[in-house]
Amino acid sequence: MINFSSALEEMAAAQESKEVITQLFKDVERLVSQEEYAKVLRSIDKILQLNPEDNDALHCKVISYIRLGKYQNALELLQKSFSDENLISEKAYCFYRLNKFDELLNLLRQYKLGNKNELSLRHIEAQVAYKTEDYNASVEIYYALLKETDKNLDVYNDILTNFNAAKAALLFSGGDLDAKYAMMDSLDTYELAYNTACTYIGLKDYGKAEKLLNTAKNMCRKSLLSEDYTEDKIEIELGTIKVQLGYVYQLQGKISEAIEIYQSVLKVKGMDVSASAIASNNLVAAKKDTELFDSARKLRVASSKNLDAKLFRGQKRVIAMNEALLLLYMHKASRVYAACQDLARKSLQTYPENDDLYLLIASTSFLQKKINKSISDLQEFAKQKPESLHINFALMQLQLLTSNPNNALETFEKHLSSIKDDKQRYKSGYVGLLVWLYEQSGMHDKAVKTLEDAGTFWKNTSSNESTSILKQTASFKIKTGRYQEAAQDYEQLVKVDPLDTQAIAGLVSAYSHYDIEKAEKYVNSLPEINSGDGMDIDVDSIEKLVPGIKKSYKKTDNKSDGPSQKTHTKKRKRKPLLPKSYDTSIPPDPERWLPKRERSTFKAKGKRKQLMKSGSQGAAIAGGGIGGTGSANIAGKSVVSENQSAAASGGANTAQQESTAQHQQTPPKPKSDNKSKKKKKKGIPPVAFSVI
């Protein structure tokens, strides 16, 4: 028999459970509108106790976890309760926030294979490209999304905001922005104004960026005040905008304004950690080599491991570089230099593309006066990165400082051989430096050949480099005495541009050495010196000037044609400085420079009186040394006794007159200070801290 009573009880219980679940969902809806997601989770758990397989409740729980920032919990629930094809957007977002980019990219590839094209997933794909610093791909995706999205939708402003951020990041990383991604000064929200300002920073239009950042700051404050934000929360929200404004001030040279902004941001409690890190780093860069211990403390905050997921790779590279630089500035002991080198080598393992770290390692040896060690380190680095301009030029500089132009030439030639593009290799700056090195090494023929090769290359291209190279060639030929060849080069330049005064002047200079008539012919083509510029030059006075004459010679009168005469001015004698109580009628004491105890008027007292009678230890005694033997005294001159001197003269009695030696009045030497003066150390080479 069927038990109708138990069935009715089950139906009643199910109905009651359904009513409870309905009421709980109403509570969830109310709590979501109030953004009380922790309470939402408690209500959802009650629903799942009644119905563990309720997909709506599970979905609400996933969203609540995401809103509370518990992305790992949300991901675990998604993988446990939903199939791979359900809630793809939520899974992708959790992967993104957990920085699991490989899993996220695999998920997006699988989703694309199903020919699905969801807007939210494409938005996440663009964000992944931005986060992994593939800015070109990010810009392209956002540009396509903007074309497909209605401007009246709220999501359009979000896409536009991120689009401007991706463009700014592309420019900051040194990339080129395509013309189709034109600038749009959208000021609908403060986020749009901020990201547009960042794009102008990338374009190096700092004036425009400063105006937009101030606009964004005012809009942010006004918007948050309308939403009843407290002043503390407003300051936290303004932190990122202020740090960027300080960065613009710093780039414009307004260091004091930038420091003031950074310090105000760091004083705010609860400030975003990434904004605090960037402000700390930029404050260290602004203060440079002052307040080093405070800078070290700030950089420790900026290099915290908690910031790895929040900062971009380029930002972390700059902070690591500044840490090593700070140790270089604190050059007080060899262990500090060793710590600087260790940190730089460790950073190179993570950022091998940063050439400045190689220079930092070489600088530590240079500051310890180990220049050979610096050169050997740079030579090793140049072998690893022959295409690096920074490393090779630093090596060349040290080789030239040690008077080794041949080694510098060899280094530069190796660097040029690593450049595959001829347009880069034959740039006028490179050619000029190579010619100068050949000249220093005495290889004039190679210098001329280099100039001719460069000139031949640029003739086949439509570029202004050809004219610049030809001018360098002609100038070098004049310097080396090849005047006819130089005149031919200058003639080519004058044919191309008859108004090129520099080429005409060079042609006149070349002809003046072997053909005066042609030189005078081209002189007339040169413009007047005093025409058009308001200059009044006396040519006659210039012709009378003789090279090497010093300023002590007087100018000659315009009426006189004689040569200038050197005037011998009498040296003024300085009056002697005398004491106020000095009386000219009283002659000075001849013993005034002697110590008191050595003066004839000195009277000893007490024990000193007895000592003066017997003489001090080591003093010379009349009659010779021990036993009156007539040995040498401490004055350094041999003293001969009267008996010996008489015997030497054969007993002849000679009348001797006593002559009193006048005491020379020489001023006493100044007492030397016992405290040894510290030598002033030379400053380290100026190395600029990097700003973010």
Automatic annotation (TrEMBL):
InterPro entries: Signal_recog_part_SRP72_RNA-bd, SRP72, SRP72_TPR-like, TPR-like_helical_dom_sf, TPR_rpt
Origin: domain of life: Eukaryota
Record's keyword terms, sorted: Cytoplasm, Endoplasmic reticulum, Ribonucleoprotein, Signal recognition particle, TPR repeat
SUPFAM superfamilies: TPR-like (SSF48452)
Keyword Hydrolase: no
Compositional bias ranges of the Basic residues kind: 567-577, 602-611
Bias (Polar residues) ranges: 640-666
Localization per record: Cytoplasm; Endoplasmic reticulum
GO cellular component, one term: signal recognition particle, endoplasmic reticulum targeting
Signal recognition particle SRP72 subunit RNA-binding domain sequence ranges: 554-603
GO biological process, one term: SRP-dependent cotranslational protein targeting to membrane
Sequence segments annotated as region (Disordered): 550-618, 640-692
Keyword Lipid biosynthesis: no
Bias (Basic and acidic residues): 589-601
Pfam families listed in its UniProt record: SRP72 (PF08492), SRP_TPR_like (PF17004), TPR_8 (PF13181)
TPR repeats: 239-272, 467-500
General function of this protein: Component of the signal recognition particle (SRP) complex, a ribonucleoprotein complex that mediates the cotranslational targeting of secretory and membrane proteins to the endoplasmic reticulum (ER).
Membership in a protein family: Belongs to the SRP72 family.
Protein name stated in the entry: Signal recognition particle subunit SRP72
